[in-house]
Design a protein that fits this description.
single chain; alpha/beta; Rossmann fold; five-stranded parallel β-sheet; four-stranded mixed β-sheet
């Protein structure tokens, strides 16, 4: 039996979450840049487009009525209300990626992470990015200069709630240094590809082959 005859492992669903400003988006972009097999999950959202964002690349921007209709039609694998806006990933996008053996990277909030874990437990790899401190988190939010002061204050209040959800996740990364944090995310991704839930069918096929020819002969 050649490697081409072995069952193709299903893809992974890599969920990366964090409070706003902790650095998850930067880490996700680095992972996608290094590994062509990883594709970014383009979420639907009702929030306005920010400076520099592209439709269909960063998000699919829709109004609240369209988003609500998609919920009613059962089109989302996960969705959540975050900072007064809605975000969601479609079932079809997840299904196509898993069946094609592609790895999908999700830059989503803990609510979406919980749903992905519940629906795709064997394929889900959940990573939570922690800021080194709340003071540093506040500094980063002010530095990126994309939100009004009242929005930053709301994000900091939300961060208190989000940090309490760390127990949902399998891995925690403190982003005190972006290079070090990325090395850890990279290691998690590489290790997850060899997990028993993903590679078990391959080993099982080899065991069956061995049992059908116990002498090891040709």
């Amino acid at each position: 039996m050649s490697s081409e005859d072995l069952p193709k492992p299903r893809g992974l669903l890599i969920v990366v979450s964090s409070p706003s400003g902790a650095g998850k988006t930067t880490l996700c972009r680095r992972l996608i840049s290094e590994f062509p097999d990883v594709i970014f999950s383009v979420s639907y959202t009702t929030r306005p487009r920010r400076r520099g964002e592209e439709e269909g690349v960063d998000y699919c921007f829709v109004d609240r009525a369209r988003f609500d209709a998609m919920i009613e039609n059962g089109e989302f694998a996960e969705w959540a209300d975050v900072h007064q806006h809605r975000y969601g990933t479609t079932v079809e996008a997840v299904r196509q990626a898993l069946e094609g053996g592609r790895h999908v990277l999700f830059d989503i909030d803990y609510q979406g992470g919980r749903q992905i874990k519940a629906k795709f437990e064997k394929e889900a790899v959940l990573v939570f990015v922690l800021p080194p401190s709340l003071d540093e988190l506040e500094r980063r939010l002010h530095k990126r200069d994309t939100d009004a002061p009242e929005v930053i204050e709301r994000r900091l209040r939300k961060a208190h709630e989000e940090l309490k959800q760390y127990g949902i996740y399998q891995y925690l990364i403190v982003n005190d240094d972006i290079a070090r944090a990325y090395d850890r995310l990279r290691a998690i991704y590489l290790a997850a590809q060899s997990g028993i839930d993903r590679m078990g069918p391959v080993a099982e096929q080899l065991v069956k082959e061995a049992e059908s020819d116990p002498t090891g002969g040709g």
